[in-house]
Amino acid sequence: MTDLNHYSKIASELGVQVKQVSSTVALLDEGATVPFISRYRKEVTGSLDEVQVAAIRDRVQQLRDLDKRKEAVLKSIKEQGKLTPELEDKIHEAETMTILEDIYLPYKPKRRTKGTVAKEKGLEPLAQLIFEQSGVDLEKRAAEFLDEEKGVATLEDALQGARDIIAEWINEDADVRKKVRELFIEEGKFVSKVIPGKEEEGIKYKDYFDWSEPIKTAPSHRVLAMRRGEKELFLMLDTGPGEAEALSLIESMVVKGNHASSDQVKLAVKDGYKRLLKPSMETEVRLYSKGKADEQAIKVFAENLRQLLLAAPLGEKAVMAIDPGFRTGCKMVCLGPQGQFLQYEAIYPNEPQRKTAESAALVKYLVERHGIEAIAIGNGTASRETEAFVKGIGLPKDVLVVMVNESGASIYSASEAAREEFPDFDLTVRGAVSIGRRLMDPLAELVKIDPKSIGVGQYQHDVDQNALKNSLDDTVMSCVNGVGVEINTASKQLLTYVSGLGPALAQNIVNYRNENGPFRNREEIKKVPRLGGKAFEQAAGFLRIRNGENPLDASAVHPERYGLVNNMAQDLGLDVGDLLKDKEVSGKIPLEKYVDDEVGMPTLRDILDELTKPGRDPRENFEVFQFQEGVNEIGDLKVGMKLPGIITNITQFGAFVDIGVHQDGLVHLSQLADRFVKDPNEVVAVSQKVEVTVTEVDIPRKRIGLSMKADPFSDQPKRGGQKPQQGKSGKKRQSGQGDMAEKLALLKQKFGK
């Protein structure tokens, strides 16, 4: 199939024009990235968005892979001397890899089988005679093939050999395989049962101990759960339709008449189905259902990741970050507005040390010394206790105290990137730094962590790892380039995801920055070793230089359009700086005047948007969130409580919410809204702040049921309008003078007040 045929097919599938597809593929083949194409080549593609461009990229690769396989199949059959014009046409017309492999199956080199053994005994003519089902005298004709030397001593030996050959013909018939495959998918079921004796050990799979549901409608999370249970040897999993139904379908396609020969064909059908076709179809359908489940799970994961990466940043403020704990204390770091490390200390405000006074004094001293504007507290062990301590020590009211999701911080702290940045600090200090930076800019910090470790996925270790990686990489790249990257402060990890760069060029940028100081303009980026014209074209528009020599360097206007913006400014009698400052003036630019062969209205509108809000962060503004005071542990919960929470993860069956008790609660799909909800993403997003009602508390199994309905108990007896109940807090015990007090005195002496 030519590329033009591919373009037509893709255009039809995506509902776009052939020209849009061909132009997009041309850009991709030249090395352009998805973010660059969708942002800076709208006139070329007809304003296709990132999703459409990525879909074209993936589909054209699938079709090209299919073409390569067709070439290999044609070569193999031709070498066997069996390629006919009709067969060649069928191979060229195959639209999927499955259809192609069905066509190739009879010609595929295979190990020695019952059928090939029967052919070696000379029984293929008998098989052909039987399969024709013409009503011949079967016993008489079969007797002609008896040959003791070949192992055909009886009539049954001859008939059995012929049936073995027929069974393979049926198994290799493309039409039969197509129909049986459709039957498996449309009418087949997953049947899951517990392996006897594994009931207690595999209790987490209790829902699937005796479970059955259609393959066609089984949701992703249940498919992956059953497969995992089978893999861990707790469940037995069967797939497929009823045997009688399958045999009836095949017989309707290959059995003719009602005589001795057709009876033999029926026997061959039954044997071939059980021995060959059913196992083959089970494998195919398992792969098919797994692929669908993977696709849905990866989609959910990618969307959750996008929402988490694009969470509102606090911005450039001096931050104190605390990694809370009990016995080992709280690790505390102070960071400058750009996230630079300033100081590390440890405090012990919680049990068992309970050095409250010394800890409070040290925190207050460091807040004053470093001009701390916000305190980030990790949401792990001792988080609520540490939050209560910090809020109770009398800090200035303008110092924000924020709970931060620390999922993945420990992964980062042990990573090569963390060791490279902080070689002299241990894991706990690096973890605290990560918590603080995550508050300042979630995107910049989270890109340092393997997305699978962030905690927003569903069965992430069970899905196709290559497909997962590609999807998550696309998501991270989309988010990074959508927000833009400050080249003078960005980490190597963040720069790696900028369009056109990658790890090597990202490191070269950091090295250049370290040796030559900050970049003064975008043109200087070209001086980075090995960063050629193509990489510059792809990356420049996404790299920002705040307070650079050219005011446009802080915007998303691509350098290739600087001349155009200069013309706009000159036509208004202004310089570019004034044009950027005056939104009213930029709004009066007659865009139609600047349309030419290269630049159309889509690009001009994008430029105008940038002129009215140059370099604006597209993420939402940061809002402080507070958990319910006094509700710190699962034991503090009561059914009917209304509590504030934060969405931490979204699945097909609902959303998980952090309510500050070290165990996320589940809002089931049916409890997300007062209306029917098919997809949780319709109503919630990761990091969204919500109010929930506690509907169930199962302390032994650490399960919390929540609802976002106005009245989750409307179908139950009224509970008397319970109000959220507050947990009890004991009076803080003050500790005496200790080593922390001495340390504080030394710090004051060393650094001053």
TrEMBL record:
SUPFAM superfamilies recorded: Nucleic acid-binding proteins, Ribonuclease H-like, RuvA domain 2-like, Tex N-terminal region-like
Q: Which residues form the S1 motif domain?
A: 640-709
Q: Which residues form a coiled coil?
A: none
The record's Gene3D superfamilies line, in alphabetical order, gives:
Nucleic acid-binding proteins (2.40.50.140), RuvA domain 2-like (1.10.10.650), Tex N-terminal region-like (1.10.3500.10), Tex RuvX-like domain-like (1.10.150.310), YqgF/RNase H-like domain (3.30.420.140)
Q: Name one Pfam family in it.
A: HHH_3
Residues covered by region (Disordered): 705-740
State the name under which the record lists this protein.
Answer: Tex family protein
Q: Please give the organism.
A: Negadavirga shengliensis
